Amino acid sequence: MGAAFGQKPLGPVLHLYRSQLHPQHRQITYTKPSSKNLEPHFSVESQAFGGSALKKSSSVASTGSKRMIPLGTGRPSPEYYPWIRSLESKQFDTYSEAITKETNPPAANGHHQLALQVSTKHDDGYNLALALNYGHAHVELVHNPSYSNWDTCLTAGTTSALEIAFRIFCNRGDIVLSEKYTYPGTIKAINLVGAQMQAVDLDKAGASAIYLKEILDKWDISRGPKPTVFYTIPCGQNPTDTTQSLKRRQQILEVAEEHVLIIIEDDPYYFLRPGLCSTGADSDISADGVPSYLFLDTFGRVVRLDSTSKILAPGLRAGWVTANASIIEKFLAYQEVSTVAVSEPVQMMLYILLDDNWGHTGFFSWLDFLSQQYRIRRDLMLEACSKYLPQDICTWVPPDYGMFLWLELDWRKHPQFKDGLSCGSLSLNLLEIENNILQLALEDGVQVTKGSLFRCSKKPIEELHFRMTFAAASEQDLTQGVRIFAGSIRKEFTIY
User: Which of 42, 95, 363, 435 has a CA between 20 and 30 Å from the CA of residue 329?
Assistant: First the structure.
């Protein structure tokens, strides 16, 4: 399963990092059963789809001692790539020193030239096979899947991976289960494949396992086939910033096994742990983090999506998916006729950063540093919220993971509702209030996101929310931004 990255021994790295893992992650076993056969879950389209015949014919490997002469590949020779032979990298060169000093962040003024060798020899310079081995080793270190026939592949970002995942598992007219509020890109991707969404209620521990089970137990077949896919953002959920506890994940996995569900685990915030505060008796969140669904899954029904967008840079458009090997085969087939692959210069950048410069320990040290910085930003925003927001109207829960703060506004305190519901529908009134607050904030120079954009249900709106992020603005602007936004709320609610 890729027990090494590059040509460097993994043993010392594994020993160094294992102590940082959740206690249940630390025992890595290599004798594992196979997962269940998941091919019956494939959509009608994906069952009959095998990828690009042209690309398969062009990727025939050399056999025996004979070198394969490429007269069939519609691709130019690498020697004619007009590409820059080096990239400037800041912070890369000094980071290996930082990991030996444990708490030192990377130097802000580091400067290093990273050579990108343009070679016509496939065994020289940049080697994609080694980079993929790194990916396997990373997944095994962090998640250590419980079954043997898992695999992983690169994706051109999570949005692309989501579209492929829904094509693999959904037929037109199917219904996908998801948290009540979720990432708008997912909503669009589901709609594009002709499927719809069913909202699952949330509480302080994330998606409700009780409500999920109730939906499936009482499913009315007249609505269409019973859902077979549950899409979830388990850590630092976008937009509500909830994180599912270990207990909650186990409960949901039990429901998934009972009702034969595929779980799509979209987890870009897994490594961003800006807070270590407890969220109550139902929580198992600790400094070690919560085990992923991929780790807890013993049947191979979890499709895990990871991304570099929140931990390195969104412009890379690079991620990876881990799942049962038969599912990964379908991902690769669809990529052959869509994104094809992650941009090769991006792959080079990632390979050189992760393999040549950081290694596993350097990468995890970077993630620790990043989480520390987000913790500082989160605390600044929370302090500003407590100072400026009208707390008789606004409520929020400090996030444990991720980069968002989810505000709920008590719309009943709005002047329109002093004498009960105003004329017209509640939903239209709330949308009007939401737009008014947004426009007031924009006019004063602050951009926030309306909660209604994240709704996966088409039912009338009965709640008023806004999402703020502490990741984008500078530390100096966070306090001022919250103060201005608080002023917009006060104006709309006529509080002075």
Answer: 363
Task: Cite the DSSP H helix spans in 183-307.
Answer: 184-192, 209-217, 246-259, 293-296
User: Please, what's the b/e burial string for 455-485 (b: 16 or more CB within 10 A of its CB; e: otherwise)?
Assistant: bbeeeebeebbbbbbbbebeeeebbebbbbb
How far is residue 480's CA from residue 356's CA, in Å, rounded to a whole number?
41
CA angle 188–190–195, rounded 5-degree value: 130
Alpha-carbon Rg for the chain in angstroms = 24
Q: What are the extents of the domains in the chain? A: 11-52+78-357, 368-492
pLDDT tens for the 496 residues of the chain, in order: 333 323 333 333 333 333 444 444 444 445 777 766 767 667 556 655 555 443 444 455 555 555 543 443 444 444 434 444 444 444 444 444 444 444 444 433 333 333 333 333 333 444 445 555 566 777 888 888 888 889 998 888 888 899 999 999 999 999 999 999 999 889 989 998 899 999 999 998 899 999 999 999 999 998 889 999 999 999 999 999 999 999 999 999 999 999 999 999 999 999 988 654 434 444 444 445 789 999 999 989 999 999 988 888 888 888 899 999 999 998 988 888 777 777 777 888 888 888 778 888 888 888 888 888 889 999 999 999 999 999 999 999 999 899 999 999 999 999 988 766 655 688 888 999 999 999 999 999 999 999 999 999 888 889 999 999 998 888 888 999 999 999 999 999 998 7
Question: What is the enclosing helix (H) or strand (E) of 175?
Answer: strand 175-179
Residue 245 CB contacts under 8 Å (≥ 6 apart), including other chains: 205, 206, 279, 282, 283, 284, 285, 290
From the list 215, 279, 218, the residue with the least C-alpha distance to 252 is: 215
Superfamily of domain 368-492: Aspartate Aminotransferase, domain 1 (3.90.1150.10)
Using CA atoms, how far apart are residues 59 and 341, in angstroms rounded to an integer? Answer: 14
pTM of the complete model: 0.78
- Cα separation, 218 vs 177, in Å, equals 14
Alpha-carbon distance of 76 to 71, in angstroms, equals 11
Structure tokens at 462: 């009965």
Residue 445, strand partner residues: none
CB-hemisphere CA count at 13 Å for 355? 25
HSE-up (13 A, CA, CB side) for residue 480:
8
Single-letter amino acid code for the residue at 1: M
Return d(Cα 252, Cα 43) in angstroms, integer. Answer: 23
* Chain-centroid distance, C-alpha 356: 25
